[in-house]
């Protein structure tokens, strides 16, 4: 799980263009949207692409993402349970 | 000098007809043009689309253009609609007038570029299509086949492009830079933007349901719609009777998000207020609103909130995208013309596929065509990504 | 009466504001790095900048320098009229690359957003809370000098309003921006 959390932080920094940020800057329990990392709806869609591309998880409904993408920790938990690659 | 902006010609092609008369028939019969993909070569058959029911070869034939010509579908659609508009406005020789063409498009020649993209990278077999890729090349292609316009330019503000072409054209007439201007937009379907809208997860797998509580997105369409504008005085001098008038317009920025509309519909409200102010009309004088009404959760709620802030009660309103699909950059032109056809034939066009009222809104769209319903003034909303919101008010010629 | 209250050009890794060189870097520097260095020089705390495509970054930076002296009130009803010639071709190509290979087919929503050239205006408006009229037209780069003049003709001017007008383009690693702040 720890590896996955680090991996996710690195992926998110890369995919969502967080220039100059390192994995240590992200608290895995902090909210990704709103006050935390401040992600927006386009970022959420990009995370949906990441889920499919990297972990083989298809999310058909963007609203489904809301709970899964609450934090890095919730994302990691969901991926662990549902990943197909 | 009478500076009122007259509309003296209309040209339209979309999923519901290849010209004005076919379009009017479909509109009167509420005959939707949305169905399974026939011409666009995409794997995404799960999404219905509003295609023009002609292949490129058939379009070329209709345009009397050699089948071997290197020309894109957007340009072909534009040529047909511009020719129809010029004919109605009795402009036989474009070069005899101080006339401009302002055309809105965003997809441009993309549907050919995507077809030959790998060839462009790997060989020189289809490089001639690179020259027609640009949006500007589409406008130039239309000019090449319609007449020698003394001014032409291309507007690209996403789905409000055609409406903004009208605004720019009207401004140029009022400022005296042109005597006549053909304004509107053209856009064909492409895999490029179908995939793009799909990544945003805002395409409906059933024909779109604007203003329905359970709406689930856009149905993409294609088409072209152009209007001939000139001052009332200039039309009188040419002895051409105006069809109707542009009495107000406004554009505002929503300044909220790259693609989403603000929850309070601020940009939409500002645009409608500006259009009303210019027209000198009161909200209660608007007899019909042709909404932007894309069928997404976000647009219809945001637009609806803006509309009900300004109008009490909300006048009859419908989104004709439920018939044509969303013709993106052409939508402003196509939908103003649909509304003018309804106005000239005294009926209010239906908002198809509507069942349940949106909870947060206090109005329902038009559930079936309302015949014998005169329209003196209507308001057309046309919004684009980038927060670009336009409203236009058209008044009947009485 | 309309007058030009400010002018900025950004090209060849050189920023000229009101006729004076404000910032420059060696031309061998990659464009995106140049934009990032300019962003840091301006000490902006706007991380969304890094999500923008090169065209939007260019327009954002030019607008930032030109509009920073204005008050929120000045900016609220400002008009923005821009022209460019190669549209969003950089992002178009990047997005196309995410859909053209069947075995690696992951269309990117964040790339698609920037395949609309007018998003640069949206970014400027969001940053500065500008709610005025705006439009973007695609023109030939050959009549670059007349574009500013033509834009002047196409706008309905109102008294005591600001307008941001200009030209920007990004194509094939070449870029340029020339923006003017007009007051009527």
Describe, in plain words, how this protein is organized in 3D:
- The complex is a heterotrimer of chains A (85), B (398) and C (184).
- Chain A is 52% helix and 0% strand.
- Chain A is built from four helices and no strands.
- Chain A has helices at residues 2-15, 41-55, 65-68, 72-82.
- Chain B has 398 residues and is of the alpha/beta class.
- Chain B has two domains: 5-237, Thiolase/Chalcone synthase (Peroxisomal Thiolase, Chain A, domain 1, 3-Layer(aba) Sandwich); 249-396, Peroxisomal Thiolase, Chain A, domain 1 (3-Layer(aba) Sandwich), CATH 3.40.47.
- Helices cover 33% and strands 18% of the residues of chain B.
- Chain B is built from twelve helices and ten strands.
- In chain B, a hairpin with a 3-residue loop joins strand 9 and strand 10 (388-396).
- In chain B, helix 2 (56-63) packs parallel to helix 3 and helix 3 (73-88) crosses helix 5.
- By secondary structure, chain C is α/β, with parallel strands linked by helices.
- Chain C has one domain (4-183): 3-Layer(aba) Sandwich (Peroxisomal Thiolase, Chain A, domain 1), CATH 3.40.47.10.
- In chain C, a hairpin with a 2-residue loop joins strand 1 (3-11) and strand 2 (14-17).
- In chain C, helix 1 runs parallel beside helix 2 (54-67) and helix 2 packs parallel to helix 6.
- The longest helix of chain C has 14 residues, at 54-67.
- Chain C is globular, with a radius of gyration of 16 Å.
- The chains are: A mainly alpha (85), B alpha/beta (398), C alpha/beta (184).
- The interface between A and C is small, with 12 and 10 residues.
- Strand 3 (151-155) of chain B pairs antiparallel with strand 5 (134-138) of chain C.
